[in-house]
Amino acid sequence: DVCVLGSFMKDLVARAERRPMPGETLHGTGFAEFLGGKGVNQAIAAARMGARTAIVGMIGDDRYGEEFLELLKTDGVDTDWVVRHPELGTGVGLPLVLPDGSNSIIIVSRANSAITAADIEAASPVLTSSAVLSVQLELPVEASRAALQLASAAGVTTILTPAPAGPVDSSLAAFVDILVPNEVEAAALTGLDCNDSQVPVIARRLADDWDLRGCVITLGSRGAYVLDRSGDGAFVIDRSAPAGAFVVDRSARAGSGRELRIPAHPVATVDTVGAGDAFCGSLAASLAAGAPLADAVRLANAAGALSTTMHGAATSCPDRSAALALLDS
Ligand code: ADP
Fold first, then answer.
1. Separation of alpha carbons 150 and 104, rounded Å
2. Residues 25-33, mean pLDDT to the nearest whole number
3. Domains identified in the chain, total number
């Protein structure tokens, strides 16, 4: 099973020709609302990739909170561990998108910022009984640390997406098995430019500094890079097996290195928002099903690519059969 600890963010997206000047009221050209937040996106991605998935987090006692619970239930995500804050509302994001696609975003974390280490303690049954715990950095770091620590002590495989980019509390490192930064986050963590020749250097440095079992760097339209320090990489995905199943296939060994650059799938991309979350949710689902890292990354690379062919974040996550079909094509 997969457990995701993370944020709930209701996005209210305005489109406009330009940014308003101070004091100005500007007519927009479009509006859309989405349910997102990295926690929610990753949980839905993991569920659609076949994993039994639970989410831990905090929402408000309000209409947006209701919308989240409904959405997550539609995808079969266990919401029993979601706490409703009595006063603070559900987190909101207010992106402004300009005609060239660039955006500026205001985030008001609200209930997300109120989750405490004590709340995490209360969720300990699900945090310690899952096969994989996935955490990002949109919640208070004390909560993230408490969850990673509990899970890691219980032998749960822990994944950290160090997003949003910025300095990361070094006390998290001891409890993280697999770190999954994108290019911007990888550069922020190491101070190195994440160009093609530096990617392996960055992955090795992060693996050393954080004492990781694996480091996966997502490279947008360039695919992904994986450094696996855990096993012999002798597994492959069995496409005939039931959803989520993986089997050992010694014959595939030659193709499963410990350091791999995996090119992106060429797809008709319309919106890359949420690609990283689709990737991480998929990665968590595969690892929970027993896949070795390189194979989990291959499938995640297909899931990430497919998510860019649809608008939205949570809603653009593909299901497992679609991702396997792209992997096969
Ligand atoms: P983030 O969304 O966190 O910025 P990336 O942009 O690195 O993360 O995307 C995550 C993954 O999604 C990539 O590693 C890749 O597998 C897939 N992906 C992203 N953009 C594309 C694209 N344009 N074409 C194909 N795959 C993509």
1. 36
2. 96
3. 1
